[in-house]
Each structure stands twice: as C-alpha cells, then as structure tokens.
Amino acid sequence: MAEDIDQPPARTRSSRRARAGATIADVAREAGVSLMTVSRVMNGKANVREETRERVQNAIAALNYSPSAAARNLAAASEIRIGLLYSNPSAGYLNEFLVGSLEQAARTNVQLVVQLCERPQERAAIVRRLIDSGIDGLILPPPLCDAQDIHRLVQQHAVPAVAVASGQPASFLSSVNVDDRAAAEAMTRHLMDLGHRRIGFIAGNPDQTASSLRLQGYRDALEAGGLDFEPDLVVPGLFTYRSGLEATQRLLALAPAPTAIFASNDDMAAAAVSVAHRMGLDVPGDVAVVGFDDAPQATTTWPELTTIRQPIADMSRAAVQQLVDDIRAAREGRRPALRHLQMAFELIRRESDAAA
Amino acid sequence: MAEDIDQPPARTRSSRRARAGATIADVAREAGVSLMTVSRVMNGKANVREETRERVQNAIAALNYSPSAAARNLAAASEIRIGLLYSNPSAGYLNEFLVGSLEQAARTNVQLVVQLCERPQERAAIVRRLIDSGIDGLILPPPLCDAQDIHRLVQQHAVPAVAVASGQPASFLSSVNVDDRAAAEAMTRHLMDLGHRRIGFIAGNPDQTASSLRLQGYRDALEAGGLDFEPDLVVPGLFTYRSGLEATQRLLALAPAPTAIFASNDDMAAAAVSVAHRMGLDVPGDVAVVGFDDAPQATTTWPELTTIRQPIADMSRAAVQQLVDDIRAAREGRRPALRHLQMAFELIRRESDAAA
DNA sequence: CGGAGTCACGATAGCGCTATCCCTATCGTT
DNA sequence: AACGATAGGGATAGCGCTATCGTGACTCCG
User: Fold this and answer.
1) What is the DSSP-derived secondary structure letter of residue B233?
2) How far is the CA of A273 from the C1' of D3 (A)?
3) How far is the CA of A16 from the C1' of C2 (A)?
4) Closest CA relative to residue B293, chosen from B309, B277, B281, B317
5) With bands split at pLDDT 50, 70 and 90, how would you rate the model's confidence at B83?
6) Does residue B25 approach strand C to less than 7 Å at its CB?
7) Among A206, B29, B202, B276, who pairs with B247 as Cys (CB 3.0-4.6 Å)?
8) Cβ distance of A245 and B78 shorter than 8 Å
9) Does the CB of B37 sit below 7 A from strand C?
C-alpha cells in the first residue's frame, strides 16, 4: 500500500480549519468517490448513477454533513444579493412578507438585504447606493412597487426587479399579485348577496395602483348586480387608520346611510368599526363592515373582520424565486423571462358582516 | 520594465470571474499596496500608517469596491449562522425585531436563519434539528425566551444563546431586556399623578416571566404612593386581544369601577378601549386606558394609547451583537462573558389617559 | 555601536466548494 | 472488428479573501 506516501507533508502551521462539521472531502472519502461526485449529488446533476447517488447520500447522512454556503457561493461565482426595499406598509404585512422572503432566500442560498426606504426624497439615493454596491436585484413590495423614481433607476441600470401587489406593474418588471379587481368584486357581491343595496366604499391611497383596481371591482359588482353606482358612496382614504376614521364619518353622515361599508384595507375597516361603535351603532347589526388584506387588525378587533386574504408569504417567496431566476438568466446571457404571476385570494368570512 | 514578463500565461479557459465589481486585488493595485494591507484597512487593524490607510480608502471609494461576504467568511473560517426562533408574538413586535437583527446580521456578516417555532410539542424537534445542522447560536425573543424545553437543549448542547425580554433569564444565557418592573411602576405612578386612585390592572400571560415583573411594578407604585393593593383590581390576561376583552368586562363590572385601566400590553389595552366604548364610556373621560409595548395597535386605535415604548430594534441588534461576541469567544477557547443588558424604556403619553 | 525589540507591510498558503477539462468503460452501428 | 457516441466520474485550478509568517527599516539601550 502506498498510503503513507500519499500523505501530505506534516502541517507545521496550525490548521485554519473552522468548521466543526464534515467537509465535502470527508463525505467523498466515506462514500469512496471523488469530491466532484459528491458535489454533483448535492446539486442534483443528472449524470450520476442511482446507486452512487445513494451511497453519497448515505455518507452525507452518516456524517451529518451540511455544505458551507460561503464556499459554494465563492466557488460557483454565484453570490446573489437581493435588496428588499420596504416603506412602512402595515406591520403585519411586512412581517409576513419578510418571513416568506427570508425563507426562500435561505433555501436558494441568496443573501437578502433588507432596507428601509421611507421618505420619498431619500428613496432615489438609497436605491442608487444599493445598485452601486452591486446588488443583483430588487424586490418591491407595496407601496414601493409603484414608485416612479425607483422604476426609473431600475430601468436605467437594468437591474432585475420584481413588483409585488402592484396594480399595474411596469413593463420591465416581473410581478406577483392577486387579482385585486376580482377580489373586490367578490367581496362586493358577497355583501349584495346578503341583501345590502347601499354599500359605502372607502378607497385606498390613489398613489398605489391597486387602489383603483379595488374600486373597479366594486363598480363591476354593482353593475353586474344591476345596482346604480352612486358617487357619494365612494369616499377617499389613504390606507391609514386615521383616514378610515374620517371616511367613515362621512359615509355614516349620509342620508340614508349605507348599510354596509367596504374598506380598501383592514386598517380602515377597523377604523370604521370604531366610528360606528362610537356613534352607538352595532356592527354588523346596524352596519356591516368588511376589509381587505387579512392583516392582524382583522382579528384584533371586535367583531373580527370579514376580509380578503392575500397569501403574502407565498407571494414574497414567489417574488424571490422569480428574481433569482431572472438574475441567473441575465448572468448566463439569456434574456430574463419576465413573468407576471397571479395568486389566488380568499374571502374570509368572520363576524363583521350580516344580512341587511 | 519587466511588466510584460510578469504577466501570467494567457488564460485559455474562460475566466470564472463572477463579480462585476472590483476585487481586493484591484484595490491593492490602485492604492499601490499589497492585498494584505487592503485587508487590514478593511478590518480596522491597528498596524497601518494613517497615510496608507487613507490611500487605501480612497482607492476603495474610487473603485466602489465592496468585499465579497462569501470569500471573507471562507477565508476567515468564520462563517457564523445564528438561529432566530420566533413564535407568534404580535406582528408589530416581530417585525421590528426582525428588522433590527437583520441589519445587525448584515453588518457583522453573519447569516440569520429565521425559524417559526410555534407549537410547543414541535419546538424541541425544531431546535434539535437546528443544532444538529450546526447552528452557532440562538436568539430567543419572547415568549420563547422563557421556554423550559428550549433552555434544556441549549444547555445540554452548550449552544450560545441570548434571551430577549425575558423577565428572569436563565443563568447560562445572555440577555437583553428593559426593566419591566420599573416601567410598570413608572406608568402606574403616572396614573396616580393624574389623580387616579382605583387603577385596574390586566396581567399578562403567566407563562412569560415579564408578566409578573409588570405586576410587581404596579404593586410597588401603589405602595410607594400609599395606596392599598386591592386584589379585585388585578385580573388575569394572556396578552391577547380576546383575553383583554374579557378582563376589561370584569374590571368595569366592579363597583365602584376603576377610573383607569393599565393593561400589560397594547393588544389588551386596545381591547379595553373597545369594551369601554361599547359600554358607552368615554376614553379617557370616563376611564383612562394605558398599555405597554408601543405596538402598532397603540396608534391604530382611537384614542391613541399612552404606553411604554421598548426599543425593540435596538434590543434585537444588541442581542445579535452579544451572541456574535459569545460565539467568537467560544471559538477562540475563551469563556463567553455572559452579559445581561438592560436598555432604557420610555413612557409615551398619547390621548388615552387624563386626570381622574 | 551592535544586538534586541518594534513597527509597517509583503508573500504565500489555504478556507470548502464548483467549473472545466479529461479519461475510461460501455454500447450500438456499420 | 473497428468506430464513434455517450454516460459516469476523476483531477485540477481557481473563486476572493484572511492567517500566518517573513522581512526590512527603525528605534532603544547598555
């Protein structure tokens, strides 16, 4: 045997080995194959015999091996950094969004840079800095998905980006949404089915394109049901609790008052409930109130809100996936295949609505 | 000049170079120094002349260089992965917590693994899997900071961990909190200063050690102010909106009813406001209501809640920092210096309290 | 004035992995 | 039988950075 001849010269310097765990070399030795074969198995490449694959996988399990993300990135020259810009959407939204994207980022071995991007006058500078620092792509949750200045930068620098929950995503972006129009239509129809004929609508922030789609859905449902659209029943809002307070006061001051209020998000719906209560009205006995988003407010309000649930975590997961695909495509010289995903919403019936 | 002799043999294989940006070699060339000097500057090592440091920094700026996290981790043998376990605290809390820790994780170049750890019966398995996969440390926000089964695993496997906002952190953990007792005392004193003599207290979930500290603060303030502690005025709660509803009903059914209600968190305080309104009581005219945490609910309620603000993002940043220090210490064979940080809280006065 | 100590900095060898190139055994084809 | 085609798998060279050690230029002191 030539085993001792093969040994490398004794290391005089102390080893710099860091990982407590096994390395790919250990696995290769254990399985009796080369490093590359182990690597192939781990990356699911095709040209490995089933039997070999199993042997390697057993070795991996036996040694409790988990690959070093750092080494993989470095070797594959595929370090991907994705910027996730956010600007104070409701806490619940951001939260679920973050969890979904973090999970997907970990799964696909990309680094997520989470950046607050609050004040409009600083936005451009922040995005520019990210781009300059070599970010590989951007995720734009609402309301940033509709920000013109960010769009311009993205297009100028040809940075792959995904808009989430934008009403009408720019042509050079991938996007992930639910069908806001259809969802609002379904909710309005639901109220009509309960017998409501005067349905107040609190619109969302006009700067977000989803707002007008929700309004459109409301109008479509009225029309389909043979009800006249009454401009007085639509009042402006900004997606904030405070704006919901004011909007509801206007609606309930109408004569005759609406028997149902459809707020464009849950914050405003919660505000509507609060105003109704303070006016001595019962919800849903005197007015039904429904929201949109299924934010935490929906269940920390009494009565709990009937609302539209968006699969936010799934959407953010999909957004990361799409972005990574686009980035890899661009790196390989392929044209990224912009895709516009539409995910299913769900009408969640709780206790804030009832027959008219 | 020997410049052309120095050139490496023409590369026949295509370069595997990935980064669009500059590498440390580019910076070194630009600044006219060696790689190591650049590395030293970037890591803030002491033994570099001020003049050289500046030259390097200029080169870095000129090339808009940013180092590859993957390469740094690999070379320094210092890849650190931290597990952040969470279990459905309020969305606002988790949110701020995540943002803070993500930021600090990015800054210190460690990888954050965010893990949902909801159901008690699965917790142990999840934590064990994380540990087996070679996680280097754990962050335990409430309520997991007080979970006995997790504590046991952490101690058994000697995994560095930091408990955040635990009332009485286990002896083998580092911790970061605010002084819950002092904060509750301050809030109670605030109500007493406003002239309230009958102050209802809604306790928090007894499984979380912070709950009893908040109650203790309430009692301490009463005693210091010469008021008798009245057991009837303290009702149990679970930190949930729903439990706040019930607790408030009990408090307001008392005769005489309290003129102020101190809820152990904002969810329950929001519930208290809701119940008061439905009973036709004005807040704060008929009852003052105050909360704890400064969660989003505090400002999406009318009237906005007076509450105690914890610097959650700062706390999570500190937790990550502490954990990284502990991990590095352990790797170098030093004993980690367990530390118990206490950060400043703030009483935020809004519109839900008034003189008795 | 020579040797020890200090300081700023350079040369080099990896960190753990994958891309690339290359070799071998096996098969079908003529 | 000779040939190319095609798996399946090995050897090697980096990816971009830092740890370690080496080196020359200074200081300091007996």
Assistant:
1) G
2) 84
3) 39
4) B309
5) very high
6) no
7) B202
8) no
9) yes
Q: Answer yes or no: are the C-beta atoms of A301 and A267 closer than 8 Å.
A: no
Q: How many residues does chain B have?
A: 356
DSSP H or E segment with residue B217: helix B209-224
Contact A68 B78 (CB under 8 A): no
CB atoms within 10 A of CB B136: 24
Q: How far away is chain B from the Cα of A180, in angstroms, using its nearest Cα? A: 24
Going across the sheet that includes B111-116, the strands are B111-116, B81-86, B137-140, B161-164, B174-178, B340-343
The three state secondary structure string of A55-71 is HHHHHHHHHCCCCCHHH
Q: Please say whether the beta carbons of A260 and A353 come within 8 A.
A: yes
Asked whether residue A335 carries a pLDDT value surpassing 80, the answer given is: no
Q: Tokens at residue A327, please?
A: 């980035």
Return the number of CB contacts < 8 Å for A and B: 129
Residue A299 Cα distances to A200, B294, B327, angstroms: 22, 19, 40
Among chain A residues, the shortest Cα distance to B109 is held by A111
The pLDDT tens digits for B113-169 are 888 888 888 899 999 888 877 788 999 998 899 999 999 999 999 899 999 999 888
- Nearest CA-CA distance, residue B149 and chain A, Å: 23
The answer to whether the CB atoms of A79 and B90 lie below 8 A apart is no
What are chain A's domains? 2-66 (1.10.260.40), 80-177+314-342 (3.40.50.2300), 180-311 (3.40.50.2300)
The nucleotide closest to A41 (CA, C1' atoms) = D9
- Cβ separation B297–A302 shorter than 8 A: no
Nearest amino-acid residue to D10, taking CA and C1': A34
Distance CA B124, CA B122 (A): 6
Q: Are the CB atoms for B333 and B172 separated by under 8 Å?
A: no
One-letter amino acid identity for B276?
A
Main-chain dihedrals φ then ψ at residue A228, nearest 5 degrees = -75, 145
Residues 6+ apart with CB under 8 A from A342: A176, A177, A178, A179
Interface contact A19-B78, CB threshold 8 A: no
Report the distance separating Cα B291 and Cα A203, nearest Å: 31
Distance CA A1, CA B47 (A): 50
Residue of B nearest to A15 (CA): B77
Q: Which residues pair with A115 in a beta bridge?
A: A85
Gap between the terminal Cα atoms of chain A: 91
Interchain CB distance below 8 Å, B69 and A70:
yes
Mean pLDDT on A26-35: 91
Alpha-carbon gap: A298 to the closest alpha carbon of chain B (Å)? 11
Q: Are A163 and A272 in contact (CB under 8 A)?
A: no
CB B20 within 8 A of CB B30: no
